[in-house]
Design goal:
196 residues; alpha/beta; five-stranded parallel sheet; 10 helices
Amino acid sequence: MHHLDPDPEAFVEAARHFREILIDASSIIVLSDIGALETATKIWQLITIPEAAAEAGPSLVQQNGSPIYIQIVPAEVLARLSNTGPAASITRPPQDGAAGSSARAKKASTDLLLIETAKKHRRPLLAEDRKILMAAEDAGLDCFDSLVAIEILRGFAPEGSKSYPRWHKNILERNNYTAYRLSWAEQVAMAMIKLL
């Protein structure tokens, strides 16, 4: 998803090289709900921060009795995971220890940490939240939502073409997308067809 001069062909070319993807809790949940999470873990190494994993919940560790492999890595050690050099320091947003702290404040803190982690380690980011995607775009990162993820999986995953109609039906029944997001996913789909 790109809000500045979108180029779906350039995005698809970049997507060919996606190996490690930083994923937000919402995308873990969406991909699981539509039945595409296991396929995504076969194509990409999905990485998330502990705060996002806690938001997604422990039930997503298994799907249909099979383990789903999402690596949970504290932001401070993410750089060591891919041997890109010493871990860059991550400034964690202050945590409100008061008993009355809201879930919204905690989510905002997790979103900020996820964005900062993606920026520092230059990972593609898979997220559903428009604000997260825009912040990633502004930082020059490749980023996309689950609607675009299933388009990529359709082209790159061996079972993608067969599973895509079900995923697409499920995601459109589950989520409401703006005309822009639907259009961007369609442009990516067309670029996939053209380039593959």
